[in-house]
Specification:
136 residues, 8 helices, 3% strand
Length: 136
């Protein structure tokens, strides 16, 4: 799968499932990330426009709830806001503490995958996953 295919898939999900404002935000982000890749994906998107509109209609018949309800369900439990990082904090700490036992250096099953996981969870939250590692 090429990078253009990945951009196309993201555009497809945004177009068929998200409300217009969220879809536009996704498209704008993709356009800013890489204009050339976005243009290639957009050509594929336009070539499949009829199929995509059909999918969008099908999904609207299947998904009967308003998208704001889905966001609410995913963001709240028992009336309180969920911090996804707080839920994962103990899991991430265990991964960090147990990484010495991992022999594989690979991306999918090894230490490199753990590095990416920690890096990408740290970026949006600006938090330190494991203070002791950060101090070394």
């Amino acid at each position: 799968m090429s990078n253009v295919d990945i951009f196309y898939n993201q555009m497809l999900v945004a177009q068929t499932l998200l409300p217009d404002d969220m879809r536009d935000a996704v498209f704008n982000r993709l356009r800013k990330e890489s204009g050339a890749l976005f243009e290639g994906a957009e050509k594929m998107f336009m070539a499949n426009r009829e199929l995509i509109e059909g999918l969008k209609c099908d999904y609207r018949r299947i998904i009967t709830r308003d998208f704001s309800e889905i966001l609410k369900i995913n963001g709240e439990v028992g009336g309180r806001r969920i911090d996804p990082f707080a839920c994962l904090y103990s899991v991430l700490n265990r991964l960090v503490l147990g990484c010495g036992a991992v022999d594989d250096a690979g991306l999918y099953y090894g230490k490199m995958g753990l590095v990416f996981l920690l890096y990408y969870y740290n970026i949006p939250h600006g938090r330190v996953v494991c203070q002791s590692i950060n101090q070394r």
